């Protein structure tokens, strides 16, 4: 463990670091601004309104980059905290936000919508609906004689995930190879390029609600390893707690996938990195995952849009960077934090 202390200074750093990263990322791009310029633009907008800002600068910062910055913060924090909640919940170090098939369900919904419409708002809504259908399917399949165990939920999630992956392949097979197939393929690779404030207004509150719920229950995640009787003696209903956490993480995953496609590795890499830094106490893991997840996605999205003339799909970037970093962590520690 690299940071043995988790005091007030660490908490303040975890709050300020994503804000500072967001401000720096807001200025990076072909039309670049330094940190002082960005602060001045935001201050001018807050005090005098948009008419006091040069139109091109306003368009670049407030219409193009700011929605992406907000989405990157929401998705990074949401996916990281979902992974951090799922791993103790399922007692599985490899559990991720994709475990229950929600992301695959949302991807199928998006691919289906792209067959019939090019409206991004329509695509987002259909993706969100199918993400929620996936979690309902997973929960229904996992119930045996009215009871649902975590083991059955994982198995049902694998089955639902496989089903929707096959359906996505079917959609790609029947799609027009000249027009629809490239659009579907690019969307599934993940991108924040098409985000608007209207899209954020639909998916953002669901992500924020899910993050807030998991944050408020963070200390209860530590007692998931107890038996039902031990937990009940402390006045905690484990079954209800598991359902609330699963629904919160599912809402986050479905909303993120509906807004920017499927993004992998965030929910696996960030929680494990956090546990290496701060230990396994979920009272620390959850807030630190929110902060570091937001920073990670801000850096990834900024790299995706600014590193080359053509935007790099996010899922490729997160895998290319996430997999080697995870391998290095494993080689360095031998998985001792798991």
Q: What are the SSEs and their pairings?
A:
Layout (H helix, E strand, L loop, with lengths): L7 H19 L8 H14 L6 H35 L12 H15 L3 H23 E2 L2 E2 L1 H25 L5 H10 L7 H20 L11 H6 L4 H23 L5 H13 L3 H25 L7 H20 L5
Antiparallel strand pairs: 1-2
Helix pairs in contact: 1-3, 1-12, 3-8, 3-10, 3-11, 3-12, 4-5, 4-6, 4-7, 4-10, 5-6, 5-8, 5-10, 8-10, 11-12
Taking all residues together, what is the mean pLDDT? 86
Shape call: globular
Radius of gyration over all CA atoms, rounded: 20 Å
Proportion of residues in extended strands: under 5%
Give structural notes:
With 338 residues, the chain is an all-alpha fold. The chain has 13 helices and two strands. Strands 1-2 form a two-stranded antiparallel ribbon. Helix 1 (8-26) crosses helix 3, helix 3 runs antiparallel to helix 12 (282-306) and helix 5 (120-142) packs antiparallel against helix 6 (150-174). The longest helix has 35 residues, at 55-89. The protein is globular. The termini are close together. The mean pLDDT is 86.
Offer a few descriptive terms.
338 residues; mainly alpha; two-stranded antiparallel sheet; 73% helix; cell membrane; transport; transmembrane transporter activity; ABC_BtuC-like
């Amino acid at each position: 463990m690299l940071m043995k202390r988790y005091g007030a200074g660490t908490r303040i750093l975890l709050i300020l670091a994503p804000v500072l990263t967001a401000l720096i990322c807001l200025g990076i791009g072909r039309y670049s601004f330094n940190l002082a310029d960005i602060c001045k633009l935001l201050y001018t907008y807050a005090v005098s309104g948009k008419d006091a800002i040069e139109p091109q600068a306003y368009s670049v910062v407030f219409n193009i980059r700011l929605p992406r910055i907000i989405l990157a913060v929401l998705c990074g924090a949401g996916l990281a905290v979902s992974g951090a909640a799922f791993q103790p919940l399922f007692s599985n170090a490899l559990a991720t936000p994709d475990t229950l098939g929600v992301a695959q369900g949302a991807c199928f919904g998006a691919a289906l919508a792209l067959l019939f419409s090019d409206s991004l708002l329509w695509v987002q809504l259909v993706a969100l609906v199918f993400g929620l259908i996936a979690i309902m399917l997973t929960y229904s399949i996992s119930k045996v004689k009215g009871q649902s165990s975590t083991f059955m939920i994982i198995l049902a999630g694998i089955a639902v995930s496989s089903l929707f992956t096959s359906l996505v392949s079917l959609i790609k097979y029947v799609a027009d190879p000249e027009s629809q197939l490239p659009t579907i393929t690019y969307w599934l690779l993940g991108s924040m390029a098409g985000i608007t404030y209207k899209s954020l207004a639909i998916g953002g509150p669901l992500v924020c609600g899910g993050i807030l719920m998991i944050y408020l229950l963070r200390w209860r995640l530590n007692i998931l390893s107890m038996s039902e009787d031990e937990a009940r003696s402390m006045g905690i209903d484990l079954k209800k707690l598991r359902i609330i956490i699963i629904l919160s993480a599912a809402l986050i995953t479905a909303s993120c996938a509906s807004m920017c496609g499927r993004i992998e590795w965030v929910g696996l890499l960030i929680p494990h990195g956090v546990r290496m830094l701060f230990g396994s106490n979920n009272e620390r893991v959850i807030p630190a995952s929110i902060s570091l997840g937001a920073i990670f996605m801000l850096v990834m999205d900024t790299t995706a849009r600014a590193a080359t003339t053509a935007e790099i799909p996010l899922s490729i970037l997160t895998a290319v960077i996430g997999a080697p970093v995870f391998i290095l962590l494993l080689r360095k520690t031998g998985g001792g934090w798991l």
